[in-house]
Design a protein that fits this description.
elongated; alpha/beta; UDP-n-acetylglucosamine1-carboxyvinyl-transferase, Chain; 651 residues; five-stranded parallel sheet; Rossmann fold; 21 helices; 35 strands
């Protein structure tokens, strides 16, 4: 089911075991190597994600058999370097590895092909790879902007001139794609890298995978790579894809932030024996103070007693995993400086700019440079604040920022973007974390739920949310702005930018003005009931309410706390009383304040509000199936509070 957003309460603890999905980097490389090889390759633990789907679809469009059996094992029948389909148009989405490696391979494969992707792929440079391939005789045409996809490939006229030069300081995938494709030439070729080669571990991984498929490349440092004449790929028969080391970074950081020594976070599927360079993230999180244990194919992490500390790190070797450090820096003492990350700017989004902007939304102080980020963690003067995090259709933005929920409640927009590499990431994450507890108290108007909820919160030392106050504030803001309570769009717009503040002693401010008494009037109570029936208004206030769900816990009262706002609350209470009893209580409250009141009018108004609340189209007032019923017709406040506390103790 597609979700526009995913809201997190503040998380308080992590621990347990997670088994990683297969590595994306290895999966896509092995799929292509198996396709180019002689023989059939059986691939175990292949990552199933958007990126690998684009590669599989491309290979199938090129006429190759690429299918899984009932046990999930994939078999690829190699073509020995000659694709059956010699003319095709391939759509590769935003799969950078697939696009770069297939560009190089198909440019030398002797067919006519068109390669394209989503709009962001058309913004990702590929000119350095194209320039290198043209030195071999490839015929490649840019169909739109020079230096960027889409690309049209025609049969190459291979020129055995011996030397190909390629820049190494933009993306290591260019060199990876070029080297992977060289066996198609059939001649001896030497590749010389100009400038600094970034992300070297990814190139090293490529060379090791090629060796598993029978091709050994001679390497002289990181400057020269020579492929012998006559090299060709042969299947190893069976290949097991190790767990994704980049994905491991989220869970290692999770452990270093919030896991206890007696219940660490264990990550299975990748360890010290890994081919992937991102496994070195373990060293980085250890340098921040995280307690990390490495095994051959597993790692564990837990938080240090003294907490994490900031660090300065050259991230050239771990460009993808380094993103996780930017969010982990929120939990560290002292600033964190991540250097040599220029490649972030040509990824799924400009990750340096995106990371700086979203960290800033949370209240962190960030310095952005051409190839670095400096993150200053929060302090008493600069605390973090709840925020909605944009993900820019970038899977790593979504996964990285989920860790910030250990600092504040937050919203992850477009969480489905994780399907690119880790489709069930959020389900895996939620199985490992413990949120701050929440008690949801619902009930009709004047049932006493607010008084009971506030006293329960005080007894437990929890935060308290009077959701009705937010709707009353919205009604008051609309009245002051001259917006009719029935104007759904107008009221929702006001709710979205509501400047509300709640004091420790029950004071409430609207736009800098103290309005505690004003919003308790009967007029504002009626207005709150009316605006609460508007779907757009409820949507505008949803995250504002969820932002109260912080450590050590929350008690929230309202009409839809259990059904909509906090549906996963471990304790849900439906607190009610007859309309007659509620009218009597309301009458006494008003008289005690010196106001005139008519019991009959109050009773009629309560019944009208009940009908409106129970019959509204969105989030009608009702008792949830798993909520405890608490009838206060004959109970005093203290008795009701004691009952809720007893139920919570049972939980």
């Amino acid at each position: 089911m597609f979700m526009h957003f995913l809201d997190f309460p503040q998380l308080v603890r992590a621990g347990g075991t997670v088994r990683l999905p297969g590595s994306k980097s290895i999966s896509n490389r092995v799929l292509l190597l198996a396709a180019l090889a002689e023989g059939t390759t059986e691939i175990h633990n292949l990552l199933l994600s958007d990126d690998t789907a684009r590669m599989r679809e491309a290979l199938q469009a090129l006429g190759l058999s690429c299918a899984a059996d009932a046990s999930g094992v994939w078999r690829v029948e190699g073509c020995g370097g000659r694709f059956p389909v010699r003319q095709a148009e391939l759509f590769l989405g935003n799969a950078g590895t697939a696009f770069r490696t297939l560009t190089a391979t198909l440019a030398l494969a002797g067919g006519d092909y068109l390669l394209d992707g989503i709009p962001r792929m058309r913004e990702r440079p590929i000119g350095d790879l194209v320039d290198a391939l043209r030195q071999l005789g490839a015929r490649i045409t840019y169909t739109a902007n020079p230096g960027f996809p889409p690309l049209r490939l025609a049969p190459a006229r291979i020129e055995a001139n011996g030397i190909v030069r390629i820049r190494g300081n933009v993306s290591s995938q260019f060199l990876t794609g070029l080297i992977l494709a060289l066996p198609l030439t059939g001649v001896r070729v030497t590749v010389e890298v100009e400038g600094e080669l970034i992300s070297r571990p990814y190139v090293d991984m490529t060379l090791k995978l090629m060796q598993r498929f029978g091709v050994t490349v001679e390497r002289e440092g990181w400057r020269r790579f020579t492929l012998p004449a006559g090299a060709r790929y042969r299947t190893p028969g069976v290949f097991h894809v190790e767990g994704d080391a980049s994905s491991a970074s989220y869970f290692l950081a999770l452990g270093a932030i919030a896991a206890l020594p007696e219940n660490p976070l264990r990550v299975e599927g990748v360890g010290r024996a890994a081919l992937q360079g991102d496994v070195r993230f373990a060293d980085a999180i250890a340098a921040m103070g995280g307690v990390v244990t490495m095994e051959e194919t597993a790692m564990t992490a837990h938080a240090p007693a003294a907490g994490l500390r900031g660090l300065t790190l050259d991230c050239n070797a771990i460009p993808d995993a380094a993103m996780t450090l930017a969010v982990a820096a929120l939990f560290a003492r002292g600033e964190t400086r991540l250097a040599n990350i220029a490649s972030w700017r040509v990824k799924e989004t400009d990750r340096i700019a995106a990371m700086a902007k979203e960290l800033g939304k949370l209240g962190a102080r960030v310095e952005e440079g051409a190839d670095y980020l400096v993150i200053v963690p929060p302090d008493a003067e600069h605390p973090l604040v709840p925020a909605a995090i944009a993900t820019y259709d970038d899977h790593r933005m979504a996964m990285c920022f989920s860790l910030a929920a250990f600092a504040v409640p937050l919203r992850i927009e477009d969480p489905g973007c994780v399907a690119k590499t880790f489709p069930d990431y959020f389900e895996r994450l939620q199985a490992l974390v413990t949120p701050a507890p929440v008690i949801a108290v619902d009930g009709p108007t004047a049932s006493g739920k607010g008084t009971v909820a506030a006293r329960v919160a005080a007894a437990l030392g929890f935060h308290y949310l009077d959701s009705g106050a937010l709707y009353r504030l919205t009604a008051l803001a609309a009245k002051e702005a001259g917006v009719d309570w029935a104007d759904e769009a107008g009221v929702a717009a006001l709710a979205a930018r509501l400047e509300a503040r709640f004091g420790a002693a029950g004071e409430i401010w609207l736009n800098g003005r103290e309005v505690s008494a004003e919003i308790r009037s009967e007029a504002m109570a009626s207005g709150a009931s009316r605006v609460a029936a508007l779907p757009a208004v409820r949507e505008s206030l949803l995250f504002r309410q969820r932002a109260f769900h912080r450590a050590p816990g929350l008690v929230g009262d309202g009409r839809d706390m259990a059904s909509v706002v906090f549906p996963a609350a471990p304790l849900k209470v439906f607190l009610t009383a007859s309309a007659e009893v509620r009218a009597e209580r309301r009458y006494r409250q008003l008289r005690a304040r010196g106001e005139t009141a008519d019991k009959a009018v109050l009773l009629a108004d309560l019944r009208a509000r009940d009908a409106r609340d129970m019959n509204r189209a969105v989030a009608p007032l009702r008792q949830e199936a798993d909520a405890r019923w608490l009838d206060t017709d004959t109970l005093g406040i203290e008795e009701a509070v004691a009952q809720v506390l007893a139920w919570f103790a049972e939980r």
